[in-house]
């Protein structure tokens, strides 16, 4: 007779208390518990932890990662990082590396060292579950009306990512360096909101936050001699981590911000075509989240709780648009975005007000006069809008018939030139009056790039042959415009050098300025080739000197120098992005 069915309620004939039903158990801990060195219930078909986390439970005999003393130090780092991600410590209160020395970041001779890296230890791709509601794409209307939520996937932070991040002190250094440098020219992550959340003991960070920290470390890392930037261990880890989040259907603003930083790393360190592809990914992901401002978009991020959160989403979307345009600026593959900002769209709020969480009484729109004073990031967005008008003029407004009258198009070009020149002069005054010239460097350089792009399309039409008086007048105006903007860029380049005398000062110089420097260098090379002007050659050498300084921080400067040298060798100079 079965003990489970004893009518007397006794477990055995001796009268002991009833025994618990014997649940079958595995002979060993599951793979996930072994990897994480956690106690496993060994219950079948899934252990208690895997069942709670709703993930695949693997009791196979595959060997777990090594458990020797080699990994004891790593486990201590993991524990410290987990406490950071759970809000235990407030890493933002740690001293900035720009105020105190950051030991361990440089060798005794002052040169940065390549990060310590252990080969990848089996990222758990097997058994991943993607619970993203497909209806959001197949029938967006039903998705929104049904009030369907996007579940938050359970994703384990990859071991290699944890190893790259290091301990809490290392994360603190990364965050402070990011907000002291990159954030100054790409302010899309709210430092105030991040600090408040991390100091809240009830708030728990997740893998998307760890990914953002990793990408902050990536974008602030410097090129290493002898190491291809595409082989940077932090970069490889970040790319895998992004792929992991995508595979699980994660919908998070932090993931978008993280991959924007990956894209800027790829652009600034000349990792192509990855930069081009990543920019497109960010555009699609932003659309998926619904931060593009379109009413018909599914709002996967949920309702907004504060003005700071709303502004962060707006800034991130502007960052997506900026990134996509700048990454493709030098190529002939311009893809005009159907989501170009309209006159009624709002610009980002004042930078200082957003940083302090101060609600602005009057928000500026794209249609506001360019002379109205705004902060550096809204200025960068205004330059982006003007550049978009130029690209549309150059690539969309061309008449299909070359014999069609060009006068209306020339008038439009002259109006554009006047508007962008006004923005350039306004920005230059603001930059000169500011205590921080580098804060205005990115918008000023992008404005110069817009002028170069416009003038280049008219400076040498149809093989430098102007058939009509109107074309001759437009060509002369474009050449004069190129001379003026090239001189402005050379002076701008000299000012950048003056404002960044020390190597660490280059950390605050935005890679956005590279296109303008290269455009001016091409123009001076062309002028020198045409008339042998010594002043043009001197200006060219001055810009080359700036690029040589900048290549220690951003590798795309070295690539621009290489192109200039190749053009000189083959007897060709200049480019024409507008034709």
UniProtKB/TrEMBL annotation:
Principal location class: nucleus
GO molecular function: DNA binding; DNA-binding transcription factor activity, RNA polymerase II-specific; zinc ion binding
InterPro entries membership: TF_fung (IPR050815), XnlR_reg_dom (IPR007219), Zn2-C6_fun-type_DNA-bd_sf (IPR036864), Zn2Cys6_DnaBD (IPR001138)
GO cellular component terms, A-Z: nucleus
Subcellular location: Nucleus
SMART domains recorded: GAL4
Domain Zn(2)-C6 fungal-type: 29-59
Keywords carried by this UniProt record: Metal-binding, Nucleus, Transcription, Transcription regulation
Domain of life where this protein originates: Eukaryota
Presence of keyword Metal-binding: yes
Keyword Nucleotide-binding: no
Protein name, UniProt field: Zn(2)-C6 fungal-type domain-containing protein
